[in-house]
Design brief:
The chain is mainly alpha-helical. It contains three helices and two strands.
Length: 107
């Protein structure tokens, strides 16, 4: 085999079965974890009392629209989910700091 094939090809042919075996083991582990999670979820769903399953969350109904009670702020305005300006400032500062650290490591 040494005479007919270059060393890189021989290395690839020797390495591929091990890589395939490792990939198969990872897939088997993930399938096992998925099945265990599904079984736990099914068990949890069965343990929920039947009386709790039919109860809807407390909601305010107006003009045919549902709005959760906690979505209305103290001033009576609807609270819209999202990132407030304080969070944006904190994220921008963190981004600047981390970018500077990365630039130092690269140079």
């Amino acid at each position: 085999m040494k005479e007919h094939y270059p060393s890189a090809l021989r290395l690839l042919v020797c390495f591929c079965p091990f890589q395939h075996d490792a990939a198969c083991r990872v897939i088997a582990r993930l399938k096992k974890e998925r099945d265990e999670s599904r079984a736990l979820l099914a068990l949890a769903e069965r343990q929920i009392p039947a009386s709790m399953a039919g109860v809807a969350p407390a909601a305010v109904v107006s003009n045919g629209k549902r709005a959760m009670e906690d979505e209305i702020g103290p001033d009576g305005k609807k609270i819209r989910p999202g990132i407030n300006p304080v969070m944006i400032d904190e994220l921008t500062e963190c981004n600047t700091m981390l970018s500077a650290q990365r630039k130092k490591r690269q140079s």
